[in-house]
Structures are given as C-alpha cells and as structure tokens.
Amino acid sequence: MIHAVLRDPRLRQPRWWALLFLGGCLAYATTSLLPLGPWPFFLVAAAWLLAAYLFRWGAPRQPRPPKSVIPWSLVPLLLWWLYVYLAASFGIVDLGAIYFHLQAGMTDHGGASRIVAAIVSTLCALLIVVAFTWLVRNDHRWRLFERILALILLASNPLLHGITQRSAAIVADDGAWLDRRYVEPVIHSAPDTPPNLLFIYIESIERTYADRERFGDAYADFDVIGEQGKVFEGVRQIDNTGWTMAGMIASQCGSPLMPAGLLHDRQFEPLDDVVPGVTCLGDLLSEQGYRQSYLGGASKVFAGKGLFYYGHGFDSVYGREELVPRMEDPEYLNSWGLYDDTLFDFVHEEIRELAAGDAPWNLTTLTIGGHAPHGHPAQRCLDRQGEFDGVDILYSVECNAWLTRELLNDLSDEGLLDNTLVVIASDHLTMRVSVWDELIAGPRDNTFMLLGNDLEPQRIERESSMVDLFPTILEAMGFEIHQHRAGLGASLLSPVQTLLERHQIELINTKLREERELQLRLWDGLAPTARQQQDAGLSEEEEQLPPVM
After folding, report:
1. CA distance 52 to 467
2. Burial class of residue 501 in the structure, from the number of CB atoms within 10 Å of its CB (0-12 exposed, 13-18 middle, 19+ buried)
3. Distance between terminal CA atoms of the chain?
4. Which of 182, 181, 194, 67 is nearest to 134 (CA)?
5. What stretch of H or E contains 486?
6. Residue 512's closest CA among 305, 242, 311, 269?
7. Cβ contact 485:491 at 8 Å
8. Closest-CA residue to 107 (of 390, 303, 306)
9. Which helix (H) or strand (E) holds 533?
10. Which of 45, 69, 205, 473 supports an S-S bond with 370, CB 3.0-4.6 Å?
11. How far apart are CA 429 and CA 158, in angstroms?
C-alpha cells in the first residue's frame, strides 16, 4: 500500500512538495506566534492545502508558460521568517538585546540548542526561497499577487516596525524626556559600620512563578526565604531591561540599557567599556572602601560582563574561564559553564576570604539554573528531585530555589551573613519556556527581596521597575542618598513615587524609543546643557517628583 502511494506520479511533481513545505512553514509560524497550543498547526496546514487544491495553485486550468522571475516578496518573506525564529526562541523579540550583543560580544555563549535551531531555521529559509520561487514562476496568478503580498509582509512585520520606531528617535521632538528625570547617584552619608552586600541574581526566575495555582511548589523555597525579609511585588519589566546585562545595569545603575549602536557613530564596533558614563552601585561602594567580587558560571566575556564589572569598581571578576581550572571535576559543566551547586561552592569560599579582611565586601553572583528554554538543574537537585525530563522549566526553578536557600542557610550557620544585606533578584523576566502560555496569561513581575541588616519582614506592593532596585538597595544598606533617588530609580523604602507610579508603562516604553540624551549619558557621560533643558521646556513640576500621598 505504502509502495503504491509513493509511486503516485503526483507525489513526484515539485508542485505538491513546494505547497506542502510552504503550508508547513505557515502553520509553524502561526503556532509559534499565537499562544493557542499546537492545534492551529493542523488547522492552518489543512486550510492551506485545501485552498491549494481548490484553486489549483501551481497548476492553473489555463496555464501560461513558466517565467524566470525573482519574486519581489522573497526578502519580506525571509524577514518574517527571521521574526518567527526569534519569537519561537525567545518569546519576545527585543531589538535592543540584538544590537547590544552584536556590540558587546556573543562568543563563549552557552546556547548550543539555539545554534542548532538557527541552522535548521536557515535551511528552512533556503527551502522557502526555492519553493516560493517555483510557485511564482509556474503560476501567473501568484506572479500578480506576490507584489501585493510583498507590501503586506513589509507593513505587518513587527521586526521592521520596531526598527522604524527606534529610528524615529532621530527626528523625535523630545529626545531627553528620560534624561531630565535622571538623578546623579550621590551618597550623602554612610552608616558607622557599613554592611556587607550579597547580591544574588537568579537567572530568569521571575516572581510570577510564586502563583501556586499555575506553577505548584516550584517557587516555594523562595517564598520561605522571603518570609525573613522584605518582598517587593510589582517590579515590572520596561523596555531595554529584558536580558541579563540590561537587568544588571538597570538594577545597579538605575537606567535601562540603551545600546551604543542605535544612534551612535560607533555602530557595531566592539566595546571597550560598558556604560562608562554613569555611576553605578559598584562605583559608589568602591568609594566607600568595599572589596568587590563578581562570580558567574558562564563566561565573563559574553555580553561584556567582565567589562562592566571591572569598569565599575569591582576588584575581581570570575567567570567560567577562571573557575573551571579550580573544579575537582572540570567535566561537570553545562553548555553555559558551571552548574549552580558548583558556583555556590565557590561563592561560599569567596565570602570566607572576603570576610577574613578588614574592609566591608560586596559579592555579586549570577545563577544559570533557570535559563530558558529548559534550565540547567544541578546534580544535587537530580539526587534530591529525581530524574529531569529535559523540558520542564519548573523542575529547574525548584532546583535553583532550593540551592539558594541552602546557600543562605550554610552562610548563616557559619556567621558569614552577620551585618550583611542579602539581595535576591531575577535579572529579567524569563523568555520562552515550557510554561510560556501560563506565564503570559496575566501580569508578570520580577523577583526582588531584601534580607538581613535588621530589616523587618514585610511585603511591599508598588508599581516599579528594575531601575528602582539601585536606590532601594542603597537605602537598605543604610546610606543616605539624594532625594531617595538614583538614576531613574526611586527607593521603594521611601515615599517618593517611581516612574511607573507617575506614568503608564506604555508611555515610558515610548519615551525609551525616542530617547537620545540618556543614551549619550550612558556611553559618553554627556548630559544636556542648561540651554537644552530650557529649550525642552521642563516644568517645575517635572523637575521635582512629589512623594506618594
């Protein structure tokens, strides 16, 4: 029977092979972009094939001779396919992230699965070119329609829409709206005994996972940790804070990360410094005499992490390159680098060394366990939680939460967290994972909690963003800062309103796309002159953000 079907001469014709492939690509694109599960794939594929059969695409009843033409819509089709690949891989297509990583460096990344997906997507793109070109050349109706299709594809592509929006900043009436609200970070006074700081970034593990109805007990250990300190709810993700370096810079420098190449003469030249024009947490603590270390399981070269931390007051920066030679089993690695159980062992060891000195210390670390799409659960979690199916991100979230709780317990038992503020924060909201549809079903917010340094346990719900972490951490450490603000952030321990309490997130994101002066400040240390501020017409009300009533 199968042999007879395969011998059907119609299946040996290029027409149906081309139509089947194009229909499959259309169905895949629909499934990737719509949060409706897998069923649209079969519906769209069936609808496409039915239309192809009824209208005899590729074999019209009154055929005309094939014509060797190059379809106008090939480039628009490929641009849409690029958008589908990015959306399927990351969930949200962030042009800022693309620009920044092109400049800061994408070598030594751990996205091996992304490379495979990119290769497959590229091969599919080549086949799309072949299949669609055959269809246009052999069906004169498609030769007429595809010119209109080219315009439709160009006008509807979100990728091109985003590029157009960012380009609009060049001619925007006001490109300094955010920069006028920027407050230079200044410490007016410090506590007699400055506390140490342990800053743990939990990769992609947003507070949204705390919803037990949707995600069970995956976040339970973080809930237990939060019972001992202040937990902040409502930390939203504004544009240009949605990837690791952007989240770190927002939370430590009080500004979204606006890549240097968008409106800058450097374009895509490699970076020598990362946001050298602004004062960040590491700069302020360095002035206060802190010894500072960064430890991460991934390469410090990727995305400019090493450049950022060395350039902003850190004494030591350890990544995969430095830590792997110190491991007992150098083969115990994931595609990015160290598993979190190994990383936390090194964190514990580094804190012992820092605590042995006379100076206050700041240790910042970044886990990798929750990284999309599936996470990288450590062996200690496999021993505790059982076999990992390789897909369920909630397994990895639970693993990271348990490892973080164990680390804090071990440090506390050893007395290493005395006079120490512990910060636990997600670097950004997660990208596309196995529970993506559940995550995007409602409002999402980042993890942010503070423990130690005599802070009373409390849950604080305020509309805020990652830029507000910077001044909040400074005040939680006992430092007095100017107007309770630093950068674009406002301390969540003060009554001063945040940007998101004064303005809708849509407005802030719109202003980010139009901003020029803040970008210049980030990369060149340039600020608008008094004359520019006067011309922009900043009102007295805008200059002083009033406190919450």
Report:
1. 52
2. middle
3. 78
4. 67
5. strand 485-486
6. 242
7. yes
8. 303
9. helix 530-536
10. 205
11. 21
Closest CA to 502 of 513, 488, 516: 488
CATH 3.40.720.10 residue window(s) in the chain: 194-543
Q: How far apart are CA 166 and CA 515, in angstroms?
A: 9
Residue 529 — very low, low, confident or very high, per pLDDT cuts 50/70/90? very low
For 303-313, what is each residue's pLDDT tens digit?
789 999 999 99
Which residue type occupies 296?
G
Closest CA to 75 of 150, 163, 172, 6: 150
User: For residue 500, what is the enclosing H or E element?
Assistant: helix 499-502
Q: Which amino acid is at 271?
A: L
Phi, psi for 190 (deg, rounded to 5): -125, 155
- DSSP E strands in 309-457: the ranges are 316-318, 361-366, 420-425, 448-452
The phi and psi torsions of 526 (rounded to 5 degrees) equal -90, 135
pTM assigned to the model:
0.79
Number of neighbouring beta carbons within 10 Å of residue 496 = 19
If 0-12 CB within 10 Å is exposed, 13-18 middle and 19+ buried, where does residue 538 land? middle
Q: How confident is the model at residue 450 (pLDDT cuts 50, 70, 90)?
A: very high
**CATH entry 3.30.420.40 includes domain 194-543:** no
Token pair of 177 as six digits: 């709206």
Average pLDDT over the chain, rounded to an integer: 86
Q: CA–CA separation, 291 vs 284, rounded Å?
A: 12
